[in-house]
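Problem: given the chain below (95 residues), write out its structure.
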Amino acid sequence: MKAITVSSEGQIAIPKEIRERLGIKTGDHLNIHVIEDKIILKPVGYVPKSQEWFWSEEVQDIIKATEVDFKEGKSITYNIDDFLKELDVRDSSSS
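Solution.
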């Protein structure tokens, strides 16, 4: 365990070997959590605004359910021609 010092402005420096191990670079963001008497810092990945929808709880639940279905063999295999025909059928029935 490595000891660090808190500056008069409340700042700390994360030791180089820890930054390298976790891939933390200048400008990265960290979430801070207090759990009992511990401070937990976790690197935060940046997601572009245009892609936030993908990481919503609703979309992630759908993806998880789809993965379960696939693992249970609940999927269909198409050749490209049949797949395109199926898309046409679905497109015309949703109009």
